[in-house]
Design goal:
mainly alpha; 2 domains; 18 helices; globular; disordered N terminus; membrane; transmembrane
Amino acid sequence: MSVKQLNASTADVAVSVPVSSQPSMTSADSPVEAEVSESSEKQGSQGTQKRLFRESVWVVGGRVLGIATAIGLNIVLVRVLPPADVGVFFVLGSIITFAAIVAMFGTHTGLVRFVSERIGVGDAEGAKTALRQGAKFAAVAITLGSILTMGFLYFAGEPLFGLKHLEVIAPLVAVSVFGAAAIQLCASLLRSFHDSRFSILLTGQFGGPLCNLLFIGLAVGLSLFAPLSLKQVMLFCAISLCLLTPIAIMILYRVGKARLREIAIDDQPSEALPMSVLLLACLPLMLAQSLSYITGQADIWIGGAIVDHDELALYGAARRLMLLIGMPMQLVNLTVIASIAELRAQGRVDELQRILRFAATLAAIAAFAVCIPLIVFPAQITAFIFGSYYAEGATVLRILCLGQIVFVSAGAAELTLMMSGEHMKALWINVVTSIVLLVAGVMLTSTFGIVGLAIACASIISLQCIGFCLYARWSVGVWTILDLRVLRSLPDIARMTAQKWTK
């Protein structure tokens, strides 16, 4: 069911109820109803803002932990593996993340949209139907995606990226893809129930902070007794993801069951979600997200195919520090993803724009605070975190920081398009920018090495974000870019949330 259909069904309910209950309405009742309607709308707006602020507290805390553990994992690996193996690990990690996105086939966004829309209009049975259909579809898609990843690496890993020991590494990568995809799907669905506590602990490249901590523990523990190899590191990655997968599924089941029980049961029959509708909705989402990831991460693949793995380690270390700058924008996406679909389904577009611009402004301020030290002291910071060898990537770090500033300042424009049924526009933007990145990236990397690769990456990401912002305005009717004026409402939101918590 599309957003327009949901809006229509909501309007029908709103019109039919008063007519049946009060057939002889007088004109004197109109001011009273208008006042009640205005009061209800105001309370709904305040409730949404307070809920988002409360969720953002959990998201910030959990994501800070996630970024800290992700960087901690890289700190451990650069000290237990030689630079060449570190470069290979960056390539494999990027492949795992990309393959997990493809394997989920857009269900981690499409299902959040369908479930959130149904919850937004009080249709618990419709939400259950969407979850059941999505779970069946996702199980098949993730399994096939993992198998295809193993086959691709086994036959193309050495010619493309110079990878060795693929008879061992390829199956481990496939298992990691399955675990990463299942965990990320569970984390996304938890957000549709507005459960930021568990979802944020399961969100991340390798299964979130819980997986990262387990990964770090295994790597550090064994390194105390013997030198580590790349094969052992990939084994630890697969083990940590597989151990957390059943836990994530169990948490999703319990949270979803409790949340849907709170929704009042509607006597009206709920429309089933046909598998064909789910497929048609998720396919463009998967393509858009895959191409978006290519635009954001294909530089690692280009570097792995052209430059030496030792030099790729320098570039990969600088890319890892971009997590610090991009973290505020990730927090925004994780906080507002379900609310975009809900507010659109309820026709509250103005409130949606206020929330998006408010969140983008906070994210940009936090990103600037992180970016300035990285631009001023890039060599010192990389040497302190990763070791003296990685200080040679200072120029790359400065260039990448500029692209991340544009990325954060643009706000959640791409997510807004996807969660509003305008994913085809996001898809075409990603198609164009991905092609340009591949062409420009190969040319500049072949000529200028990792510095040219950084220039291509930062430039294309900036152009892509501008395109998303413009299309979000034209198609959805909202701006997502930062707006410093919205900071004036922060004290009011903080005060209302504090009052609610103290009750």
